[in-house]
């Protein structure tokens, strides 16, 4: 009995460990299906777009600092021969960067959608070939509904949901990284406090991803009986009224609705749990960035434009962190479709040599 209990505990710990892991193999399968040329285009367009966005904000900070210094130092110039501040160099650079950012946003959106379309076509074609050439024992042991779900629900997830989630995840991640990089550039002392904040954020997202995935699956599993019961009730209204079972079917519908609402309520509560903790981390980032900026401004003569740039990015870190973790949890759920299709792709074909 002791050996059995220890084996159960080991199995439970291994299951929990697997639940906390990211499906990196499914992610690699999805990205490898994009091709050699499309994947570097997707990565480079994302990096260049966010680099240009940071450059736009940095240009605005320099422009603001130059305008303020021009107005606050009139005694250092001869007022009889002084001229107005020339905004044309800054406006030209700012306009060029904005146009470049618009073009890169368009290229990034096209690359993401093109990647999703190519991956879906490749996986669907490979799955169709495997299923057609599968042996008969495969159809005898695999339910038909499971095969249809791979072609319908999972392919729909790969086609529509994963590209949008991938774009949101990459955007929020790069925005968060660029914000922390700008704050660290403005005030290098911020790097000291970045390590404990990163550790806290890691453990928070680790617990949230497991709970969010389970709650999302619970929400989906409680929604299916509700929709099925509603459609069956609508189709069988004549029989229900003939046997006077309206109250029974109404009560059953309310029970299914309550079950689905409870799952949705817990999923919403989990999102609020994450948002509150990300707000605390964001508040710590703002506090540390403000203290280090003021200290650097007093002792190291840090310009006001860079201080404003660092604090602006610090105020947005909590929002970026929140969306990064939520998109990461959504991506983990949606990669399950790639994992299930990849499992069917390992099916061995029928050993058929044809007629001689």
Automatic annotation (TrEMBL):
The gene is Abcc8_0. InterPro entries: ABC1_TM_dom, ABC1_TM_sf, ABC_transporter_C-like. The keyword Glycoprotein does not apply. It comes from Xiphorhynchus elegans. One of its GO terms (molecular function) is ABC-type transporter activity. Residues 41-332 form the ABC transmembrane type-1 domain. This is ABCC8 protein. Keywords: ATP-binding, Membrane, Nucleotide-binding, Transmembrane, Transmembrane helix, Transport. Pfam families: ABC_membrane (PF00664). The chain crosses the membrane at residues 30-48, 93-112, 179-205, 280-299, 306-325.
